[in-house]
Write a structure and sequence with these properties.
CATH class: Mainly Alpha
Shape: globular
Oligomer: single chain
Helix content: 40-55%
CATH architecture: Orthogonal Bundle
CATH superfamily: Winged helix-like DNA-binding domain superfamily/Winged helix DNA-binding domain
Strand content: 15-25%
Largest sheet: 3 strands, antiparallel
CATH topology: Arc Repressor Mutant, subunit A
Number of domains: 1
Length: 90
C-alpha cells in the first residue's frame, strides 16, 4: 500500500491507535475509532489492504474477526504508527 494522501495517513494513525490500546483488536474497535468518518465497508477494505501489507494479521474468523499486529512490529505504544510508515515505505 502506498500512502498517497494526508487522509490515508490519518486513517493509518487511527488503526495504529487501536493497536496501542489493545493487543487484539476487533473490527468493532476500528469502527468505533473511526467515529463515523468511514463506513464499515470502507474500514473493512482499509484493514484488508493493510493485511496484504502484513501489518495486522487476522487470528479469528468466527462470529467476530480479531486482528493482532504482525510479529515484526514491536508493540511499543508511541511507535506503532512510525513502524507502519517504515514498513509501507519499503
Amino acid at each position: 500500500m502506498y500512502i498517497k494522501t494526508t487522509q490515508a495517513m490519518k486513517d493509518l494513525q487511527i488503526v495504529a491507535g487501536c493497536f496501542e490500546k489493545a493487543k487484539e483488536v476487533y473490527m468493532k474497535d476500528f469502527v468505533d475509532a473511526f467515529n463515523n468518518q468511514l463506513s464499515h465497508g470502507q474500514i473493512k477494505f482499509l484493514i484488508l489492504k493493510l493485511e496484504t501489507d502484513k501489518l495486522p494479521t487476522k487470528i479469528k474468523a468466527q462470529k467476530y474477526t480479531d486482528y493482532v499486529l504482525n510479529n515484526e512490529i514491536i508493540n511499543i505504544q508511541h511507535n506503532i504508527y512510525t513502524q507502519f510508515i517504515e514498513i509501507l515505505s519499503k
